[in-house]
Amino acid sequence: MGPARRRGRPQVTTERAAPFYCPYCGEEDLEPYVTEEESHGWYCRSCARAFRVKFLGLGVRS
C-alpha cells in the first residue's frame, strides 16, 4: 500500500496556461516574454509583438 492520501481541495498551481497562437497575426511562433517591470507575457517572433493574456473573471456582465 502507498502513503495515505489527503482529502480536501486540490493543490493550486501557479503555472499559467500558454496561448496557442498570437492574437494579432495568428502564428504559433511564441516565446515567453519577461522584462524587469512585467512578467508572464508572450512575444510573437512572426509579427514582433509582445502581449499578455489576463483572466478577468466569471459571471454576467452588469
Question: Key terms for this structure?
Answer:
62 residues; mainly beta; three-stranded antiparallel beta sheet; Insertion element protein
In short:
This protein has strands at 30-33, 41-44, 49-51. It is mainly β. 2% of the residues are buried.
* Residues in helix, %: under 10%
Residue windows where pLDDT falls under 50 for at least 5 positions: none
Radius of gyration: 18 Å
With strands numbered from the N-terminus, the spatial order across the biggest sheet is 1-2-3
Summing up helix and strand content along with how strands pair, one would put the structural category as mainly beta
Task: Explain what the structure shows.
This protein has 62 residues and is mostly beta strands. The protein has a domain at 17-52. It has no helices and three strands. A three-stranded antiparallel β-sheet has the order 1-2-3, with no helix packed on it. A hairpin with a 7-residue loop joins strand 1 and strand 2.
